[in-house]
Design brief:
The structure is a homotetramer of 224-residue chains. Chain A has 224 residues and is an all-alpha fold. Chain A contains nine helices and no strands. Chain A folds into two domains: 55 residues, Homeodomain-like (Arc Repressor Mutant, subunit A), CATH 1.10.10.60; 153 residues, Orthogonal Bundle (Tetracycline Repressor, domain 2). Chains C and D meet through helix 5, helix 8 and helix 9 of C and helix 5, helix 8 and helix 9 of D. The structure holds a DNA duplex (21 and 21 nucleotides). Chains A, B, C, D: Keywords: DNA-binding, Transcription, Transcription regulation.
DNA sequence: AATGAATGAGTGTTCATTCAT
DNA sequence: AATGAATGAACACTCATTCAT
């Protein structure tokens, strides 16, 4: 029993305990393999109470997704100061992201693995959060592109500046790749002992920032 | 019925039909939601026959993972000529990868989503394949680093050459990020109509190659 | 909520509200499908209060049966003047009966359908009421039989008077048939738009009275 | 166990055993109170087999209704010779009906009590059968009316012949009353020891036939 | 080589009922 | 007079798996 069995608590508290238990169980067992029995026991309550408060397994899972998605975006938002330069914002955001995923592996599993593999409805729920993050990253890329030309960090040979074709689709793909890389690194960092959130963030920052910079300056890699 | 119900076929053929049906079902329904009944019916055989040949649901799933992992790595291997320059090899590998995942969404779902979310055993199975790919990418990165100095693609101001700290852990992280980005882009490309394998490959190549190049040249982004 | 949620009312009133809600719910959902939750909510009170006043689902249902049975017999009793001739009494009684069942479909459903299909105890409860009515009808038949001979309504060829075999069992069967026909017609009239209580009563009166009359006069249909 | 537990029997046989058990259980416990566990045990099989063959509780109940309704109508149909006079047909039909209901009390309970109190779908299923019977009775009434005038069984004073107002609605009400009376008498006969099917039929025949006869001859009871 | 017949063990869900206040 | 919090026991239904042929 994960929670001390204290009786007669207000509904709001019990609900949080249930969500805690559910996130843990869903994250470790997976959505389908997690049984309501196990969740209830871990929460220290009877199954009917879980149903009374959370309605159904689907609703319970949705509630988990919403809570965890909110907490993750909140963590990132809090970690970033929107007044700072774009690269600094990206760096801070990545660090906040990797820190959160490292500290909440079950929640991250729910969002990243479980929610995306068990029905359109759940996937849509995370997709909303993900789009928020992708949009944020896209903003940073565009901001970086704008600031890249005047004082380009590397030798700009006066060549063609920013590619006019670096349109929406292009940027979307880049943001997608960056976010995807971050998601993968999160799992990798969690699974590899000795890799801190800071290191993961540094790795990705190195990988991405210079690449983006070069790209902005109109020197893309061109397929043969 | 997915397969015409022809009776009395050699075991090897029947097994492939079963694996086809299983990959499709696992890929679309998910491991737990897929029922042996559905798989047997889709394969056009009776359930006991599936058990006779494949033993159990777990074994059947493992067989699916092995077959699909083999097919994927084979596709990438075939697409790459190890004699060509590193960037060309990466480009060809990415194209082969995105092409394969686009043409075998169910198999890719089995490998990327299902196998990783349903037990350590299955995850280990794909991890082996993934490590193979990561190792390959790591080789490419190192090879690129070696070739980067003599004839650097961009203006090398004769600055410090390759970072001596670009050790194993660093490279591992980079390869991990690249592979992770590729995996995410595969899902994105599959889900976004109008994005071809070639475009996905180009996006990632742009994102990665220049970034790696800059990195090799000793101009990494440094955390504040 | 069916009832305005006024707090702190005397017990008797609350009990009636609960019985109202219960009759409605039992009548529409059926005994088993009706949940104490729904009844409590419809009554505008909390579930424990229902238990405090009515003890259990069984007791609540029994209370419903008693109240509705009492109301129905009272309605019939009030509609009949025991000083009038037998046929007039029957006519008035039928009219009162059909009127009541039309105006209280849920109560009628509780008595006629639910109580008879969910346990001997409940069935016995309605059986008591039914016997009262059957006894009343039996009286009327006997009274009619007595009055039939002196001034037979139709051409009495002076044939054998009342059948000496028209014993208790015989009369009981007739009363039973009449009451059963009435019950069925009640459901039919409720379900058939445009059929009034008066019409239902007339139909049955036509059907029954002449038949009874002929019977009294010793001209029964004889089996081959 | 009601059935000897013989293993491995053809599906058709098992299905009948299951329906036997289901009719008995539904008839005695009621639809909702009957548990699939009990039915399966009574049938001498495991629960999953019941589901494999009959799909769901609803489907199982529907199958019961259909089988019992078919058997009842078949029994009545078989008992009646459509070449004989109307009164003889009615007599034979009633006898067949009372005989069947006496011999299959559970089936009769399913049709008469359970099916009508648990959902529109089930009710519609029996309503079809009932309408068939009501239509048959209606035919008999009309046929009787036709044959009543020329050679009226009782003293026809040459008075007004058949009531021109004896329209469709009127006849429908009469048939409804007759069938309803029969249904009620069936329950009564079943519950009253010593009442045979023949006696029940005779009681109703006496009650109804003379009444109908008088009615045909234009001497209806008229409301005050 | 292949299958119709059958089940043990479990799932999500609901309900009548009580306790503490 | 009245309730929010909580549960034991059951139910319909499903599934991976095996047996007998």
């Amino acid at each position: 029993m994960g929670t001390v069995k204290t009786k007669r608590m207000p509904r709001a508290v019990r609900e949080q305990q249930m969500l805690d238990a559910a996130v843990r169980t869903f994250g470790q067992r997976g959505y389908m393999a997690a049984s309501m029995d196990e969740i209830a026991e871990l929460a220290g309550v009877s199954k009917p109470l879980v149903y009374l408060y959370l309605n159904s397994k689907e609703d319970l899972f949705t509630a988990c997704i919403r809570r965890e998605a909110g907490a993750l975006t909140e963590a990132v938002r809090t970690g970033v100061d929107r007044e700072l330069p774009a690269d600094r914002q990206l760096w801070d955001g990545l660090r906040a992201f990797f820190t959160y995923t490292a500290e909440h592996p079950d929640g991250w599993s729910v969002l990243h693995l479980q929610a995306r593999t068990h029905g359109e409805g759940f996937a849509a729920e995370v997709a909303a959060m993900r789009e928020e993050i992708v949009a944020f990253v896209t903003q940073l890329i565009v901001a970086a592109a704008r600031s890249a030309l005047p004082h380009s960090r590397t030798c700009s040979r006066g060549g063609t500046p920013i590619d006019p074709d670096l349109g929406e689709g292009e940027v979307a793909g880049l943001a997608e790749a960056l976010v995807g890389a971050a998601e993968s690194l999160a799992a990798w960092a969690n699974a590899t002992p000795g890799v801190t959130a800071r290191q993961a963030a540094a790795t990705l920052m190195n990988f991405a920032w210079a690449g983006l910079g070069n790209l902005m300056e109109g020197r893309p890699w061109s397929p043969p």
